[in-house]
UniProtKB/TrEMBL annotation:
The gene is Lrrc18. GO terms for cellular component: cytoplasm. The lineage of its organism: Eukaryota, Metazoa, Chordata, Craniata, Vertebrata. Signal peptide: none annotated. Residues 29-127 form the Disease resistance R13L4/SHOC-2-like LRR domain. Pfam families: LRR_14 (PF23598). It comes from Calyptomena viridis. This is LRC18 protein. Keywords: Leucine-rich repeat, Repeat.
Amino acid sequence: MAKAKGPQGKRVTLKMAKNSIRVSFDGKRRLDLSKMGITTFPKCILELADVEELDLSRNMLKKIPDTIEKFQNLLWLDLHSNQLDELPAAIGTLQNLTFLNLCNNKLTTESLPEELNLLKNLRTLNLGLNLLDSVPTTLGALKELINVGLFDNALTIIPNVVKNLPKLEKLNVKRNPLKELEKEEEYEDPIKRIETLYLVEQKDLCSSCLKVCQSERDELIKLGDITPSSSKKLSFPLLLTPNSSAKDNQEEWRVR
């Protein structure tokens, strides 16, 4: 009985690949094979290994072969939205890479090769939407990194060697169960709950608010000499509070 075969995907020929090369405004040649339903790395594109950019995103690739090392001119490699669950160690040979997008795959911390730390010129690394439960500290060796995407994983901590990268400008760690974020939320919560209480000095009130306050204070002084009956409860509907009658003016006097 023959074994059931998985999806074969679209077969890419050398002619198709050549017709898929685009030249960017700065003269770089991009081989764009995105959204083509490819399930296996096309061997024919090894004959076009002198391109500077390679886009294999939004396909069904499960593996990148060691032959990726043939693309020594690559500056830009986009593999996002595939089904990759591992990377070859040979990816570390692409030392001219400045951009590497691995977002939306099935990569785990263990499946990231240590050789990633050889990509010394890498400026953008996107590992978002994967299955990482920790960040390899070897990423701390990538001193040129400017943008790092680690969003939508299972990370509980971000190593200081990553947070303290010398050129890092953007670190996206959204939607991870980070302990440090939980602590920040716990700390911020009481502040948020008392955020609506404002203490102001007389000099910080606008003239109209000050008049109302003084008027109410005078009324309170007068009422202080009167003993109210037990059956009636005093009501001060015009008593000024920052969140009631002064609401429209609070931007003028709020303590900043």
